[in-house]
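ok trying this again, last paste got cut off
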Amino acid sequence: MPKKVDHEERRRHIAEAVLRIAGRDGLDQAKLRDVAAEADMSLGSVQHYFGSKDEMLRYVVRYLGERVTERIVAGMGEARERPVRAFLLSMAAEVLPLDARRRAERRAGQAFEARAVAAPELIGDLREGDRWLHERVAELIVQGMRDGELRTGLDPGREAVVLLALLEGLASALVVGVREPAEALAVVRYHLDRLTVLY
């Protein structure tokens, strides 16, 4: 019998090839032919799954967001048993480019953000991911205030924006080597300490 092909798995395999190219050489090098070579597939096979480069890139933006989101959500199951501050710190460690894998993801993400300026069809997926993360962080801040762990009177929405903006700035600094991982995490701890009730 012919082998059954998992089409979604093939798309993810192609997406991983795009992310490797974008993280290593920049998104301009992610031409269909180059992606096919990186994925060890024929050009026709890649075109079977994605009719154009733009269609492929839209898929990869969603895939990258889902991959990071899955890692964050995996930790959220523990959020009810863990202090909110500890969870926010572990979330930051997952978002920040602290190792080679996350640095490559970050470089790829930056490449997509830059392309979105000229390709508005990518902006919707980027905004959706940002909105989801903002809402989750705001919910955790509400939980922390309710549980007496975080200071009362915080504006959860604005605090979520501040924390995510801090992570965005630190992520960019880590990619270019202006900051070191330990220093970046220390800054996040410092910021979270300012939100925490002192005992």
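PB: full thing came through this time. The chain has a mean pLDDT of 85.
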